[in-house]
Design a protein that fits this description.
The protein has about 150 residues and is α+β, with helices and mostly antiparallel strands. The protein has one domain (about 1-145). It has helices at about 1-20, 60-70, 80-95, 100; strands at about 30-35, 40, 45-50, 55, 110-115, 115-125, 135-140, 140, 145. A four-stranded antiparallel beta sheet has the order 1-2-3-9, with helices on one face. The protein has a three-stranded antiparallel beta sheet with strand order 5-6-7, sandwiched between helices. The chain starts with a helix and ends with a strand.
């Protein structure tokens, strides 16, 4: 798990050196809207449900919902890790063009998996193009489904 986080952090640094924007190193958009209620992050290969759910007040309920969800014919959904959510947040936060046309927003409290815990929180925005983001925990949040 620690190795995965280190790889994601290295990816962020490389992206920042390449310039601030929701584009991959090859210039294509980092977020692809499949038109079936899902989007993909081309930087990670992960597929996300396009819409977030209603608010859950307990992590166990949020995790159970994710594990039982079926969206666009897929039933292998789960809660994202904090690092995965950060990657999507980066692509949306600094997105251009078609990212904004998808209508998705990274704002709001989201349930994520951090280590062995399920926590809810939101990213606090800082300066534009700043790789540093603070994840502030909250008591409730929405589920944003992710799958491999």
């Amino acid at each position: 798990m620690l190795r995965y986080v280190k790889i994601l952090l290295l990816l962020f640094v490389l992206l920042m050196l390449a310039g601030c924007g929701g584009k991959s190193a090859g210039g294509e958009d980092a977020i692809v809207d499949h038109g079936d209620g899902t989007i993909s992050n081309t930087l990670t290969g992960l597929m996300w449900a396009k819409k977030k759910t209603h608010r859950f007040t307990a992590g166990e309920k949020a995790r159970a919902y994710a594990e039982e969800a079926e969206v666009a014919g897929y039933n292998d959904w789960r809660l994202p890790t904090l690092a995965e959510f950060h990657t999507l947040y980066y692509a949306i936060d600094f997105g251009q063009g078609s990212v904004r046309k998808t209508g998705i927003s990274s704002e709001g409290d989201i349930w994520v998996v951090r280590g062995q815990q399920t926590v809810s929180g939101a990213w606090e925005k800082e300066d534009t193009c700043c790789i540093s983001r603070n994840f502030s925990e909250t008591k409730k949040g929405r589920v944003w489904l992710v799958r491999p």
